[in-house]
Design a protein that fits this description.
The chain is an alpha/beta fold. Helix content is 55%, strand content 14%. It contains eight helices and five strands, in the order αβαβαβαβαβααα. It has helices at 3-12, 25-37, 48-56, 75-84, 102-110, 123-150, 155-160, 166-181; strands spanning 17-21, 42-45, 61-66, 92-97, 115-118. It has a five-stranded parallel beta sheet with strand order 2-1-3-4-5, sandwiched between helices. Strand 1, helix 2 (25-37) and strand 2 (42-45) form a beta-alpha-beta unit. Helix 1 (3-12) packs across helix 6 and helix 5 (102-110) runs antiparallel to helix 8. The longest helix has 28 residues, at 123-150.
Length: 182
């Protein structure tokens, strides 16, 4: 990423949070400290239910880093609940899990996660993934604003502007990769 993009992302973190949800407090704290050192505003929680309450309270969450194996509501259930809430703009979800089975990864990708990282995660991989997710969130937010303005222009103008979001393109590439290694 060029420095201008990184600076823009750092500016936006003053308003939007990266939410870490992991039942291992030490891992959550380590990721939080790493991201804060890069200028991100971070919150971390050790349960999916606390994270859901935080998001439902209207806090400005842009990216969720989510573990899969947690007591109570697991990560997959949390993603489904988040999608059902119809919150707009929808936070980008990055799974950070010790599970690396292809079927688990495919299930997460089918739930439209932005990325899937396998623990232990290198800080450089974490930073790159969060930056991409943050950019996608900001792009989605800008598009949502443009769409609201576009509603006044009519449907024919909107049809000319339809493009596939990067996550759909990445999904296809990820599935091709998983099929190739499986």
């Amino acid at each position: 990423l060029h420095s201008g993009t990184k600076e823009a992302i750092a500016d936006e973190t003053n308003h939007h949070v990266v939410l870490i949800v992991d039942d291992d407090n030490a891992i959550a704290k380590e990721m939080a400290e790493a991201l804060m050192s890069q200028g991100f505003r971070v919150r971390y929680m050790t349960s999916a239910s606390d994270a859901a309450d935080y998001i439902e309270s209207g806090m400005p969450v842009a990216v969720v880093l989510l573990d899969i194996n947690m007591p109570g509501t697991n990560g997959m259930m949390f993603i489904q609940e988040l999608r059902r809430s119809a919150r707009q703009p929808m936070p980008r979800v990055i799974v950070v899990s010790g599970l690396s089975r292809p079927e688990t990864i495919i299930t997460a990708l089918r739930l439209s996660v932005t990325d899937y990282l396998v623990k232990p995660v290198k800080p450089s991989e974490l930073f790159a993934s969060v930056e991409r997710a943050f950019e996608a969130f900001l792009s989605q937010q800008a598009k949502s604003i443009d769409d609201d303005a576009g509603d006044q222009r009519g449907a024919p103008a909107l049809l000319e502007e339809v493009t596939l979001p990067g996550s759909i393109e990445n999904f296809g590439q990820s599935v091709q990769f998983l099929v190739a290694i499986h």
